[in-house]
Task: inverse folding
């Protein structure tokens, strides 16, 4: 019946939108060095113009895969105390034939509070082009070929949209703290009439970190705790994620990190995943590899990631190898 087909269409739309939004906002960030994708204030970690590239391939517990690649960085106007940060990301989900492209442009101000304390507020404008069903085959196409007459194929219209994020980061010699409030405009992401349209929910990212030298001139450690609040589009369920990073830095320029992720939703709480990172630092180049393994069957994105990371600094960094910031 028409009612059943309408329900089917709405459920599919919600699934696609939740899938792309959950992965785009934080699920595929598996290294502390990539935190600036979701909070541009992190460009202030090193106060230098730079460009980074990373790509991650996932394989979940049901042998479905996705790919996320990002180009991001910042131009530092040192005399004016601000950055222009940018990012471009693509997401591809093999299981449903959906792709998504995101662009972001941000203004980050560098405010010196004291000799060693700095604050980096930011505002960013984000553009999203989600949900193309380019690789999805419907039942009638499999049986008879040609163009599908399924209501999902004929009624699924992607909607491009803009939204705004705002955040800040504080750093001192040993402490770091960051906050990002996302989707401030609560953009409408479907073409339905206003009363039925699906809208983004505001989300929150919080990070707190501490670093110190463990062995003089030899080994340093940084510990960063993160909290992500992700309310659902249906207003009935909420999802929160906790992440703990432990990063060990050696004076030779080698950096090794491990992390653990935990989730809590309206039904249960459990460990989500564990992972590890390794990076070699040069005055102008950083090269790294990342891995994350899923530990739970109760969450939507059962992702196992393998990724590579490359960063180029347009000016040699003066940061000591034992410290993350």
Result:
């Amino acid at each position: 019946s028409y009612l059943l087909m309408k329900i089917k269409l709405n459920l599919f739309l919600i699934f696609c939108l939740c899938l792309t939004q959950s992965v785009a906002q934080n699920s595929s960030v598996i290294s502390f060095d990539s935190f600036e994708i979701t909070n541009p204030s992190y460009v202030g970690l090193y106060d230098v113009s730079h460009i980074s590239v990373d790509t991650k391939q996932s394989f979940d517990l049901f042998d479905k895969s996705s790919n996320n690649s990002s180009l991001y960085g910042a131009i530092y106007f040192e005399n004016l105390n601000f950055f222009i940060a940018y990012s471009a990301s693509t997401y591809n989900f093999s299981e449903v034939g959906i792709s998504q492209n995101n662009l972001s442009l941000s203004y980050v101000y560098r405010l010196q509070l004291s000799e060693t304390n700095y604050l980096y507020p930011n505002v960013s404008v984000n553009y999203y082009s989600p949900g193309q069903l380019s690789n999805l085959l419907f039942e009638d196409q499999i049986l008879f070929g040609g163009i599908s007459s399924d209501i999902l194929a004929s009624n699924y219209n992607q909607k491009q949209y803009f939204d705004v994020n705002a955040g800040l980061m504080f750093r001192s010699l040993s402490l770091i703290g960051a906050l990002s409030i996302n989707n401030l405009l609560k953009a409408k992401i479907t073409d339905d009439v206003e009363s039925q349209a699906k809208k983004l929910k505001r989300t929150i990212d919080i990070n707190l970190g501490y670093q110190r030298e463990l062995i003089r001139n030899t080994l340093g450690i940084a510990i960063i705790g993160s909290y992500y609040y992700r309310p659902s589009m249906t207003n009935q369920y909420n999802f929160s994620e906790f992440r703990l990073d432990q990063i060990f830095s050696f004076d030779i320029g080698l950096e090794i990190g491990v992390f653990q992720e935990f989730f809590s939703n309206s039904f249960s709480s459990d460990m989500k995943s564990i992972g590890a990172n390794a990076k070699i630092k040069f005055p102008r180049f950083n090269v790294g590899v990342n891995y994350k393994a899923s530990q739970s069957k109760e969450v939507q994105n059962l992702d196992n990631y393998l990724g590579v990371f490359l960063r180029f600094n347009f000016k040699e960094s003066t940061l000591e190898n034992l410290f993350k910031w």
